[in-house]
Amino acid sequence: MSDYDLVIKGGTVVNASHTVKADVGVKDGRIVMLGESLSGGDRVIDASGRFVLPGGVDSHCHIEQPSSTGGKNAETFESGTRSAACGGTTSLICFSTQEKGEGIKHMVADYHKLAERGACIDYSFHMILNDPNDQVVNHDLPELIAAGHRSIKIFMTYSKNRVNDAEILRVLEVARRHGALVCVHAENHDAIMYMTDKLLAAGLDGTKYHSWCKPPVVEREAVQRVIALSEIMDQPIQIFHVTCKEAADEIRRAQQRGVKVFAETCAQYFVLTADHLDQDSKEGAKYLCSPAPRDPANQAALWDHVRSGTLDIITSDHAPYNMFSPDGKFWAGDNAPFSQIANGTPGLETRMPLVFSEGVVKGRISMEDFVALTSTNAAKLFGLHPKKGSISIGADADITIWDAERKVTISQDMLHHDTDYTPYEGMTVTGWAQTTISRGTVLWNDGEVTCEPGRGEFLARAPYDYIKPRGVFPTPFNPVEGKNLEDTGWTQSAEYAESDPI
Ligand code: URP
Ligand code: ZN
Ligand code: ZN
User: Fold this and answer.
1) Ligand 2 center to residue 157 CA distance, Å?
2) Regarding predicted confidence, which is higher, 489 or 498?
3) How many whole angstroms from 368 Cα to the centroid of ligand 3?
4) 319 CB less than 6 Å from ligand 1?
5) Could you tell me which of 213, 105, 205, 103 has the C-alpha nearest to residue 158?
6) Does residue 214 line the site of ligand 1, with CB under 6 A?
7) Which of 68, 151, 239, 318 to mutate to test the pocket of ligand 1 (most atoms within 8 A of CB)?
8) Which residues are bridge partners to 94 per DSSP?
9) pLDDT value at position 335?
């Protein structure tokens, strides 16, 4: 019997921290050996001239999830995870939801069933909360967090899901008490609604005006506000899908004074702009997502913030709605105004190629940065590292063999999702996954798909350092424990002792 089930030979292994020429030996789904000239192996894959990367970790994707903005999600776990694998991604974090007035345990249980049936790669969930009622806060969340659901998602906009500031504080408190990260869709809901009403009253209802109802200031205000709330509660947060300089600057400022605020952006914000929305709505709807795509100046600023580490994860925010079915983008009718078109773009399969092509090929980031941004940093922030996001002894054999030379003109018919379009039709990228391996099993190799629905496993997450609070409050009062710390040697942290420049 061979020492290895699989040996990947002759490739260049790239981790977020370093690059080395090495063969990789895999046994029982894990990486057991890295070395020169490994021999044996029941199966050998030649990776000469290729990069051998930790499989991608996409920590923000909507799959088989009730929509926030109407319409039906076009993807199932089977199709979504298949297309992720064909683009080099081996772990996903998607979303269970809540019905207002109810608890969340049954929703999480139902979502588990969907994933168990369909997923071909490993997955975890963020729990969407739109109503932090007593049942959720006192019973469901403590139990679910302890069971490994260590992230909560809140929306500051969308009528169906938005939470107000008091509710945000309640969510932050329960997350801090039980050890979970809070992820935030940060846009000012009332401002969006006000602007939407005014635009529609003025007869401006095309997709172009989606970006007018939610300009960068709407994002910046909400980002600044939720960071402030997280400071009051001393609770780490992650800002989802940062699109613009103004919002990223706010995050940077908070990070510089020590606040544990993390932030992602998404592949689409590097290639789509508001101009894509400025066409007939039947076409513009393909690019309609929230926050809205911006402009080249903001794209350049996003790259700056990626390079300086403000934004350390690039996800897909895969939110798939069909263009050509009545329950898709145009669920409210063919002539729906921008405010009633489903928000979101599909992108699980194209995420890594877009980031590689725009980032590494165009000299904006290094190969190691690419790995960090598309895999390792998400694995770390969400408590999956080093099992995921790393080519190291003992890690899961989640491996993507990357062909850095391959030129691909993206088209709907070459993709493996179930959405009926791609926003990147006709765009040529350089770099694509040649082979994708999940826990030692090949799912995608040289154009052949061998995904088996249901083989994916749930990734329960134990407590981990990133979500630990700092123990820094703006006053001597710890609101989570209801304690006055004045007589316990408490001293004012420098970040609050000095006058804040806001
Ligand atoms: O347009 C988007 N991003 N739709 C998905 C829901 C979300 O997270 O905003
Ligand atoms: Zn969002
Ligand atoms: Zn999203």
Assistant:
1) 9
2) 489
3) 26
4) yes
5) 213
6) no
7) 68
8) 125
9) 96
DSSP state of 10: S
Q: Which residue's CA is the nearest one to ligand 1's atom 9? A: 290
> What secondary structure letter does DSSP report for 499?
P
Which token pair is 340? 């009633």
CA distances in angstroms from 259 to 113, 165, 228, 244, listed in the order given? 37, 19, 10, 20
The closest residue, in CA terms, to atom 4 on ligand 1 is 344
Q: Is 128 in the pocket of ligand 1 (CB under 6 A)?
A: no
Ligand 1 pocket: which of 286, 331, 343 to mutate (most atoms within 8 A of CB): 343
185 lines ligand 1 (CB under 6 A): yes
91 touches 459 (CB < 8 A)? yes
* Ligand nearest to the Cα of 70, by number: 1
Task: Produce one character per residue of 213-243: b if its CB has 16 or more CB atoms within 10 Å, e if not.
Answer: bbbbebbbbbbbbbbbbbbebbbbbbbbbbb
**Ligand 2 midpoint to CA 247 (Å):** 14
- Amino acid, res. 316: S
Closest ligand (CA of 69): 1
Ligand 3 mean position, distance from CA 158 (Å): 12
Please give the structure tokens belonging to residue 5.
Answer: 């089930």
Choose the CATH number for 56-164+187-213+242-250+265-381 among 3.60.15.10, 3.30.1490.190, 1.10.260.40, 3.20.20.140: 3.20.20.140
Name the region of 426 (left: φ>0; alpha: ψ -120 to 50; beta: rest).
left
User: Residues near 467 by Cβ (< 8 Å), separated by ≥ 6?
Assistant: 150, 175, 179, 180, 181, 236, 383
How buried is 446 (Cβ within 10 angstroms: 0-12 exposed, 13-18 middle, 19+ buried)? exposed
CB of 126 closer than 6 angstroms to any ligand 1 atom? no
The Cα–Cα gap between 412 and 419 comes to 9
> Model confidence over 217-273: pLDDT tens digits?
999 999 999 999 999 999 999 999 999 999 999 999 999 999 999 999 999 999 999
In 3D space, the residue among 133, 231, 118 whose CA is nearest the CA of residue 473 turns out to be 231
Residue pair 55/91 in contact (Cβ under 8 Å)? The answer is yes
CB 317 near ligand 1, within 6 Å: yes
Alpha carbon of 241 to ligand 2 centroid (Å) = 7
* Per-residue pLDDT tens over the stretch 457-479: 999 999 999 999 999 999 999 99
From 248-252, 366-370, 473-477, 487-491, the region with the lowest mean pLDDT: 487-491
Q: Is the CB of 208 inside a 6 Å radius of any atom of ligand 1? A: no
Q: Mention every residue, 6+ apart, whose C-beta is less than 8 A from residue 328.
A: 71, 72, 74, 321, 322, 342, 420
CB atoms inside a 10 Å sphere around CB 363: 7
pLDDT band at 490 (very low <50, low <70, confident <90, very high): confident
